[in-house]
Design a protein that fits this description.
By secondary structure, this protein is α+β, with helices and mostly antiparallel strands. It contains five helices and 14 strands. The strands form three sheets. Strands 4, 5, 6, 7, 8, 11, 12, 13 and 14 form a nine-stranded mixed sheet that branches. The longest helix is centred in the middle third of the chain and has 13 residues. The protein starts with 6 loop residues before the first strand and ends in a 6-residue tail after the last helix. One of its GO terms (molecular function) is RNA binding.
Length: 287
Amino acid sequence: MIRDGAIQLNGKPAKPNALTQTGDCVEIAYPDPVETDVEAENIPLEILFEDANLLVLNKPQGMVVHPAPGHLSGTLVNALLYHIRDLSGIGGELRPGIVHRIDRMTSGLLVVAKNDAAHRALSNQFRDHTAHRSYAALVDGNIKADAGKVDAPIARHPVDRKRMAIVPGGRDAITHWRVAARYGQYTLLQLDLETGRTHQIRVHLASLQHPVTGDVVYGREKQPFGLVGQALHGYRLTFVHPKTGERMTFYAPLPDYFLQALKKAGEPGSGEYILNLLKELECGNPS
């Protein structure tokens, strides 16, 4: 937007390296949303909450969030365009309403903006780390410690541009983890994100030599327990409602693919038991 002249500083086009001072006047001219060519598709969605400003949904494993080469249909955006008449356009032509995203083979909670004001407010919360996300992950190996933190910058892999990696000078990335249960060769973790970088949890856990089970990109090629992707689920999402100011927290129970993997790993408890266990571990987290 700076290069397009849409941001002015004290009445003049701002430069990318401009520094602001107290008393400066910054004006932003948001462009009109571009009419999308993405087609609406009648794809079922699991919506947990919806009002005039936003909706919260539980994305299934295997669904791409927004259209991309090789995935121009069957995405969350295609489904949203069918189910909701008006969506925020700030995200651009291919991402109407999308505030944040999760990987295709990761399941879990997402918040979607239904107007531009909600989109800006929610985006600011994710940028400022006042919106919080918690995940459950089954990982390879038996982690000896009960809890820990990975503070390591992430950027594109210097050789394989389709992957992310821990790279000096990359974007700050911090992941907190706690052991929820141990199954000998596998461990169930509860994780909280301070930042939300692409593939953050997967890269950070792989750096501990405990990659997410089923993750063929950052872990082993073998996928046990009938998994077709990584055993990673965003089970909790917290943010402040952009209109009412109410702090809202949502939970998504572990999906069947995750529960089946846990059962085969040796977990005797029910899905409700596991979710309650994860909730107990949230106490004292940075969120």
